[in-house]
Amino acid sequence: MELEGLKRGVNLLQQSGIQIAELVTDRHPQVLKYVRENMPTTKQSVDVWHVSKGLKKKLVKLAREKDCGELTSWNRSINNHLYWVAASTPNSDRQLMQEKWASLPNHIHNQHTHKGKAFPACIHPPLDGQRKKKWLKEGTKVSVKLLEILQSKQLLKDIGMLATGPQTAALESFHAVLNHFAPKLVAFSYDGMITCTTQYTK
Ligand SMILES: [Zn+2]
């Protein structure tokens, strides 16, 4: 359904003579594949909130495991860092975004210089000893498992595609309104869907 919706939406815009310079979507694999293969001149980006949502779930789950509770104090910072990676890289430089992300595991272990050339050091001022948040120790269970999450191939791929400008939040709100009139629990035909929602979209 997501792919069919995308195709119809894109067709409608193209038939109206609109050239799509950038398309921001969620991480739906079929959608990503379709855009990659069929819209070569369109820049494809992934909405930050959708990446953050998946990441948050994994972090919360890990923080509940035995000996991993100290991760709780880092979860918000990790998600803030994700948004910062996108917001601080307006030219969408994939390498720079990935290196900014790769600096995070180091930072959490109190290491503030990094291997990459594009982002060789954290840009925060020196951190004093007054901090409440504890650094993680390398080799501990929470550290090892956190690194598995932060350095997963899939996540790194998503990081390189983060949307640095427009996001889908407004569209999500709009869909939430439509769901009120055409609930997802009910299977409507295409015409039924149009009937339920068109008066709110015109
Ligand atoms: Zn740092």
Question: What structural keywords apply?
Answer:
9 helices, two-stranded parallel sheet, mainly alpha, 2 domains, binds zinc ion, globular, 202 residues
What is shown here, in short?
With 202 residues, the chain is mainly alpha-helical. Helices cover 56% and strands 4% of the residues. The protein has 2 domains: 1-46; 48-160, no CATH class.
Number of strands: 2
What gap, in angstroms, lies between the N and C termini?
Answer: 22 Å
Q: What is the percent of helical residues? A: 55-70%
Mean pLDDT: 91
Shape: globular
Helix and strand succession? HEHEHHHHHHH
How many domains in all? 2
Low-confidence stretches: none
Main structural class: mainly alpha
The largest beta-sheet arranges its strands as: 1-2
Rg, Å, rounded: 20 Å
Describe this structure as you would to a colleague.
By secondary structure, this protein is mainly α. The chain folds into two domains: 1-46; 48-160, no CATH class. 56% of the residues lie in helices and 4% in strands. It has nine helices and two strands. The chain has helices at residues 2-15, 29-38, 48-63, 72-87, 94-108, 141-150, 153-160, 169-181, 190-201, and strands spanning 22-25, 43-46. A two-stranded parallel ribbon has the order 1-2. Strand 1 (22-25), helix 2 (29-38) and strand 2 (43-46) form a beta-alpha-beta unit. Helix 4 packs antiparallel against helix 5 (94-108). It is globular and about 60 Å long. Zinc ion (ZN) is lined by residues 107, 112, 122, 124.
